[in-house]
Amino acid sequence: MSMGVAGVLNRIQQLQGQLGLTPVNPAPGTISTNGAVPGTSSFASALASANGQAGAMSLNSRATGQNVVDAAKKYLGTPYVFGSTDPDKGLDCSALVQRAYGDLGIKVPRLSHQQAKAGEPVANLAQAKPGDILAFDSPVDHVAIYLGDNKMIAAPKPGDQVKIQSVYEKPTHIRRVVADPSSVAGGNPTAAVRPASLQNGSLNGVPYGDLFVKAGNRYGVSPKLLAAVAKVESSYNPGAVSKAGAQGLMQLMPSTARGLGVKNSFDPEQAINGGAKLLARNLREFKSLPLALAAYNAGGGAVHKYGGIPPFSETQAYVPKVQKALAALGG
């Protein structure tokens, strides 16, 4: 997209007004100016108001960043067509972003410079999460959706198509429109399962603290929660083996480890990543910290079967143990 996108769209509206044509209805999620004519003071006022609303947009908790990524990936291969919001014809960069969010029922503004004010700011790429909007240049003339691992999905330019590419330059703005599901106020997962970047304190002095932080940020699980689970499971012993055959720091059963992609449960980093992946999955599924912990100990099937924490003495004792260890870590 080029610098003149907003100007081009405004000029089209001006010409429509001069010719007596009915303006085209804005695409879902576009900022409304309540029929004000471009070029007038009422239009400027309405646009300023709309831009203010866009900048003040609060985080949406109905969807996750991964939902946004999955929605955007549906348009891979769609040709770039400047000004088009119809995927059957093509999309430009901001239309792709608007479409991906719109498919989840989330309204974002139409133009790239407006999208650069949506949601809430993210300090830098290191703190960005999948689904965040990346905006480039000043004034903003291009946007994309972050995928993680320094990758993004975008509609780059005329003659190209929607594709995945590396984040080739530092974004000038990063915006988060969907809240991390574990940090939603009032949600069952509670603040205890927020990513490390959203928590106070650190894991200084905790064995493998740097690995808990790294895995927590990667999978969106509190590093303190991971450390608490490891404390209860193995007392931070990477060589631990239970009577049932669970292995390593996070006490993963061999079959569970394989399903999580862990090749060696006795390797602390692999074990912690596997535990983080399992806990993140449980939190998404049960939306409750106690139930997620119960599923970690007894399996998700048992939690579903009994409609809560299973009546197993080990599991009944396990959940409060982990919560107590979490509290001791300041979580």
Protein model, in words:
Strand 4 and strand 5 (163-166) form a beta hairpin. This protein has helices spanning 5-19, 41-55, 65-73, 93-102, 112-115, 209-219, 223-234, 254-259, 268-286, 289-298, 300-306, 313-328; strands at residues 120-121, 133-136, 142-148, 151-154, 163-166, 173-176. Strands 1-6-2-3-4-5 form a six-stranded antiparallel β-sheet. It has 331 residues and is of the alpha+beta class. It folds into two domains: 5-18 and 56-179, endopeptidase fold (from Nostoc punctiforme) (Alpha-Beta Complex); 182-328, Lysozyme. It starts with a helix and ends with a helix. Helix 3 packs across helix 4 and helix 10 (289-298) crosses helix 12. It is 40% helix and 8% strand. The longest helix has 19 residues, at 268-286. It contains twelve helices and six strands.
Number of helices: 12
CATH fold naming of the largest domain: Lysozyme
Number of strand elements: 6
**Protein structure class:** alpha+beta
Strand order of the largest sheet: 1-6-2-3-4-5
How much of the polypeptide forms β-strand, as a percent range? 5-15%
Helical residue percent? Answer: 40-55%
Low-confidence stretches: 1-6, 16-58, 182-201
User: Gap between N and C termini, in Å?
Assistant: 45 Å
CATH architecture of the largest domain: Orthogonal Bundle
The count of domains is 2
CATH class of the largest domain: Mainly Alpha
Order of helices and strands: HHHHHEEEEEEHHHHHHH
Q: Mind summarizing the main beta sheet?
A: 6 strands, antiparallel
